Amino acid sequence: MSAVRVPAPPTGLASQRPEYGALVNWWAHMREAAPVYYEEELGYWHLFRYEDVANALGDHRTYSSDMRSMVKQPEAFSAVAQGAFLGFDPPAHDTLRTLVSKVFTPKSIQNLGPRIEEISAELMTGLNGARHVDFVEQYAYPLPLAVIAEVLQIPVVDRARFKAWSHALFFQGRDNAPVLVATSEMLQSIDPLVAEMNDYFLDIIRARRARPGQDLISRLATVEDHGQRLRDEEILGVCGFLLVAGHITTTMLLTSAILLFDEHPRDTAALRDDPGLMTGAVEEVMRHRGQLPAAARRTTRPLTLHGHTLPQDSIVMLWLTSANHDPRAFPAPETFDSRRTPNRHLALGRGIHYCLGAPLARLELAIALNTVLSRWSHFEPRGPVRFEDPRHTIGAKEIPLRVTWRRG
Asked: Rounded to 5 degrees, what angle do the CA atoms 67, 71, 72 make?
């Protein structure tokens, strides 16, 4: 399959984030001028408006998430993909999601709250009142990693390996390539690293199946629904999903939040005074700078949209962040408003593929950010911020901060 390339956005925007700023301008232009865009060079389609993107996310019968027929998967990647139900259609999707949902319940996630608070506090204590902090390296990255390691009951000494594995699964070899859907060649390039991860988790899964405990992997190994049970490879896929959804995406949202809070001091002051407002602020962070700019789907039948006919088996890019900035759906969409209501953003998807880890992401973000505001009376970038490629993910690699700690 050919690589899906992002059409060249407008250039010359004077901004600290020229690539992201150019994409924002491009999205705004395309929502009005070409809400359904056919990329002639490679033959792919792009949707930009909220209504179109929301409808596509909610219509799995027309817009399939199963891309396996379009990209040949190498051996190790194919193994972990057996449990990646986000890329399945019913009935396979429903069977897997039902089993995982019996374990990954809202109550089990809420029970993690005290431990997330402890981890957040431990990281802050470890900073030892430092005036200069690398927010990503010292807080936004280790916190979600520690939470996922806690959920899976992985030894502390092994956590360093998670970063390489989660990076491989998330970027799928696209690190330096302007593509949204990985090619078979890109997947092949990460297959040795994925194989290493597979061996590690399969050993743990088999050990926990033999002697189950109270951790998530043990419960996945023993859960049953109408005689259906999860195979080892399916549990492996869930572990891979948690590495990505519970780690990289949460880190990216934390980085976007801290930058938005710096840019909007009034909102930040209100959040300090009333931590209960953080719930709405987290939703607005997701809307304004959601971690994933786009999602890919495959059409299962020919369809007509805004006068364009999309053939069966077309690849369609759903621009989530563009939809979340559509003025048809959100008044003053470029304004960050932590009190915005309603806030029906699409950052976590919609329909049967709505993010299973959404409750954990929301809980983790609210606790982590309230901890920051309770410890720091002021923070600001003290040097250039290094950003991820916004065509793949929206967030920062490095945020050097100058911090003033609260007294008492």
From this structure: 125
